[in-house]
Amino acid sequence: MAGILEGAGLQPLLATVMRPWVSAVETASPGMHGMMASATSSTAASLKRRIVVLPALGSALEVAVAASNLFAAALDTKNGRVADQRAAALAALAVLIENLQSAEPSEDTRALGLGW
Question: I want to staple 74 with a disulfide (CB 3.0 to 4.6 A). Which of 28, 58, 80, 99 is the partner?
Fold first, then answer.
């Protein structure tokens, strides 16, 4: 399966930040709620530090976090509709990735020389 980050055109820093979250959604299996929740929260927090979060981007981030959290919950629920929740989380991540293509680096990111 080709990952949704392949050919997305993200800045290298953003692709690196997003990789653990995307990988978790693409590969998580039942019983991996903790790993999924951790990847979601740490990546979302890192994005908020690294970019200027404008309203549309903030909304896409919130939707992706919510969809990923529902997927994480499904991983630990009998008959949790894992495939449906994974598809919803991947769709939300695709929208987030699309919004990230026009993201601007935050002041802190620029100060560290990581801007683009």
Answer: 80
Neighbours of 80 (CB within 10 A): 17
Taking only the tens place, the pLDDT of each residue in 21-49 is 999 999 999 999 999 999 999 999 999 99
> Is-contact 70 92, C-beta < 8 A?
no
What percent of the chain is predicted at pLDDT more than 90? 85
For residue 74, which amino acid is it? A
Q: Is 58 helix (H, G, I), strand (E, B) or coil?
A: helix
- Find tokens 């993200």 and name the residue: 10
Residue 58 and residue 47 in contact, taking contact as beta carbons nearer than 8 Å: no
Tokens, residue 90:
């991947």
Let me know: does 88 contact 71? Beta carbons within 8 Å.
yes
For tokens 């990581």, the residue is 114
User: Is this structure's pTM higher than 0.90?
Assistant: yes
Q: How far apart are CA 38 and CA 65, in angstroms?
A: 11
